[in-house]
Design the sequence.
């Protein structure tokens, strides 16, 4: 079985909101999670355009309507559901999705996600 790490409890992310997480120990790239009801979508926090973190300030990943993940550097927009970039300089690329599962309310991801 692959080692996992817990990001947080699902209830610690408000409905429709996003939250950022630091890299794993020894890693370089953080993660972000967006909650949609009882589901969560987790991605590596790196824009496919230049590889930089997406958010302009902690946990600020979404547009005003909460419909898209936005890259603050050049404004690329990504679908929450699958990370696909619908507009911007990396249109057609996708955020790197991270498999996650919920166990007793905890969001678990592979321990090496973000390494
Ligand atoms: S670095 Fe994200 S759109 Fe350019």
Sequence:
């Amino acid at each position: 079985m692959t080692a996992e790490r817990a990001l947080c409890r699902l209830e610690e992310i408000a409905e429709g909101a996003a939250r950022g997480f630091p890299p794993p120990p020894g890693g370089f790239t953080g993660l972000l999670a967006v909650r949609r009801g009882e589901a969560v979508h987790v991605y590596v926090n790196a824009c496919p355009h230049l590889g930089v973190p997406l958010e302009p300030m902690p946990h600020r990943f979404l547009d005003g309507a909460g419909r898209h993940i936005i890259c603050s550097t050049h404004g690329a927009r990504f679908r929450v559901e699958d990370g696909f970039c619908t507009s911007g300089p990396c249109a057609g690329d996708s955020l790197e999705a991270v498999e996650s599962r919920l166990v007793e309310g905890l969001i678990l991801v592979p321990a090496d996600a973000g390494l």
Notes: The chain is about 0% helix and 35% strand. The chain has a mean pLDDT of 96. The CA atoms of residues 29 and 114 lie 5 Å apart.
